[in-house]
Amino acid sequence: MSKRRPYVRSMDGWWKKNPFYVEYMIHEGTALFVAAYAIVLTVGLVCLGQGEAAWNGWLEAMQSPLSIIFHLVLLVAIAYHAFTWFKLFPLTMPPIVLNGKKMEPCAIVGAGWTAGVVAALALFVIVWGIAA
Amino acid sequence: MSEQKIIEIEVLRYLPESDQAPHSEVYKVPFTDDMSVLQGVQYIKDNFDGSLTFRWSCRMAICGSCGMMINGVPKLSCETFIRDYYPRRISVEALDNFPIEKDLVVDLSGFIEKLEAIQPYIIPKEPRTVEQGEYIQTPAQFAEYIQYTSCINCMLCYAACPHTGLDPDFVGPGAMALLHRYNMDSRDGGQAQRMELAASEDGVFVCGATGYCSEVCPKKVDPGNAVNINKINAAKDYFLRFLSPKGGAK
Amino acid sequence: MKTRKRSNAPIFWLLFGGGGMMAALFGPMLVFITGIAVPLGLLLPTGTMSYPNMLAFAQNFIGKGFIFVVIFLFIWHAAHRTFHSAHEIGIHGGPLTKLMTYGVAAVVTVIAGVVLLGLGF
């Protein structure tokens, strides 16, 4: 008779075991902040649909100190999402071949971060242009 | 000669015939600067407890047998040196995300089944006779897959992959790297056959892109990239199958 | 050989990827504009988000599309990632988890769509 009795270890708390996993859970956790921001925008959109008074009420609510602090937190979390999103490109994207040579991982990440900064500035300029 | 240095090695022991669960034992091992963790474990077996069980073979990081969790990190114990940990204690444990068979030996059967499932051999596009001669492959075609041939099946990537631990049927990084190796081979025509597994519920989408698999790979195979490239391939297959009648799972 | 069921994940994975990309490119600046710069009156012209401006933006074809794409992709990105994180910390994909992630995303999508259509062109 077989004396085999393979032991399966528990996965409870696996993400605390290694700094790599801790960072993974933090960047996965940025999704909660992205969701919160999408909901803030949706509430604003509903107010816009209800007319000028409701919209101004939403704008006023956005000026409260609590809202400003909340948005500073959102800014940090979503900026961290952007930072890690591009940082994972060498893992998540197919290799990019330029002139018959595979692009170095750091070059791919650098290009991603640059694209993020350019897109943010472009958005700001466009919003400024529409408003002015 | 300098005086003998002693390192504490804590080993997670599991004896299926007598233990309900694994337990730790600490051994004080004299070592020299040229000693690997594998040699430390061998010292324990030779001098303290002959029942200590572990796998090893080549001692030169090519057979892929001696993977262990060393201070919580999956490593080949033959190329990990005691001196790099001293004077801290070294903890040694069987590879994570596998059932422990005994002490540092894990149950490989799940991994072997996954290796078989990816059809790790060239499936010719069309039958080829001896008279047709050898395949011609250009250096550029060779470069497409050479990286993935470096896999030594050491399973460190599985020990690094929480998704394998959470979903044991997940095909996993190492087998996916090998699947990709054959898919990328210009002689091969088995992509559609292998897609059934890659696009299945045990396939690439179980991966959460943790990426630790590629970090710990001792041969720089980058299995995480192989998994993620095949997410794109599987997504294409998912949507484009309506346009073409062949390929893919039901 | 074991017959395997094809995963429907590509649908949600594509939304996750699109939303992640969108949030990485525009998320931080959008938060800065709507949540910090405009409320505090920094940098941007006064009245940037005034009722007439925003109404005109939401009635413009491109503006409407942009608002919808941002909300839609952000919420589906977040839903998919949160659903997986829940599984990873031991809350496995039951009906409640699906409701709290994909369900919320579906509701937000419908609300955004209805309001934007209601605002006219």
Q: What is the averaged pLDDT score of chain B?
A: 95
Strand order of the largest sheet of chain A: 1-2
Q: Rough shape of chain A?
A: flat
Oligomerization status of the protein chains? heterotrimer
CATH topology title of the largest domain in chain A: 3 helical TM bundles of succinate and fumarate reductases
Helix content of chain B: 25-40%
Low-confidence stretches of chain A: none
Q: Write down the CATH class of the largest domain in chain B.
A: Mainly Alpha
Q: Which regions of chain B are unreliable across 5 or more consecutive residues at pLDDT < 50?
A: none
Structural class of the secondary elements of chain A? mainly alpha
The percentage of residues in β strands of chain B lies in 5-15%
Instruction: Name the CATH class of the largest domain in chain A.
Output: Mainly Alpha
Radius of gyration of chain B: 21 Å
Question: Describe it for me?
Answer:
The complex is a heterotrimer of chains A (132), B (250) and C (121). Chain A is mainly alpha-helical. Chain A has two domains: 13-87, Up-down Bundle (3 helical TM bundles of succinate and fumarate reductases), CATH 1.20.1300; 94-132, no CATH class. Helix content of chain A is 73%, strand content 3%. Chain A has helices spanning 19-50, 52-62, 65-87, 89-92, 105-131, and strands at 97-98, 101-102. In chain A, strand 1 (97-98) and strand 2 form a beta hairpin. The radius of gyration of chain A is 22 Å and the shape is flat. The termini of chain A are far apart. Chain B has helices at 37-47, 109-117, 139-145, 156-160, 162-166, 173-183, 191-198, 212-216, 223-240, and strands at 5-13, 23-31, 67-70, 73-76, 90-93, 100-102, 105-106. In chain B, strands 2-1-5-3-4 form a five-stranded mixed sheet. Chain B has a two-stranded antiparallel ribbon with strand order 6-7. Chain B has 250 residues and is an alpha+beta fold. Chain B has two domains: 5-106, Ubiquitin-like (UB roll), CATH 3.10.20; 109-240, Orthogonal Bundle (Fumarate Reductase Iron-sulfur Protein, Chain B, domain 2), CATH 1.10.1060.10. In chain B, a hairpin with a 2-residue loop joins strand 3 and strand 4. The longest helix of chain B is centred in the C-terminal third of the chain and has 18 residues, at 223-240. With 121 residues, chain C is an all-alpha fold. Chain C has one domain (11-118): 3 helical TM bundles of succinate and fumarate reductases (Up-down Bundle), CATH 1.20.1300.10. Chain C has four helices and no strands. Chain C has helices at residues 9-40, 51-59, 61-88, 95-118. Chain C starts with 8 loop residues before the first helix and ends with a helix. The chains are: A mainly alpha (132), B alpha+beta (250), C mainly alpha (121). Chains in contact: A-B, A-C, B-C.
